[in-house]
Amino acid sequence: MMEIHFEEHNDSTPVYVISIAAQLSGLHPQTLRQYDRMGLVSPQRTPGGRRYSLIDVRRLQRVQNLAQTGLNLEGIRRVMALEEEVEHLRIMVQVLQNELDGQMARRRELMPLADGGALVVWRSDPQ
Predict the structure, then answer these.
(1) I need a labelling partner for 11 at 20 to 30 A (CA). Which of 61, 75, 108, 113 fits?
(2) pTM of the full predicted structure?
(3) Domain boundaries, given as residue ranges, for the chain
């Protein structure tokens, strides 16, 4: 009996050929090629041609939505770059906030009370 193995796919797995990506995004394949040339969407290159991921398809839809607001392609490129930068900074802030929270918790454990109270260490074993 022949075994069939399926690769695990996620949103960043490049699986869609240009015609399918065009259908999923509601755009013409030539538009996808133009966006690729401009660097707005960069599908993975394979021997069989471009392959788009679900993330690429969503990005194509975002480009289309921005174009419908009246932005030109250079404006769209700038908006999307800024959105990516904001997301990167948001993640960095969250990482730093988590680190700060951990540092503050450790400090509270080690410092005497601010109102002059003494630090009490409880021991479970009697001496």
Answers:
(1) 75
(2) 0.68
(3) 18-110
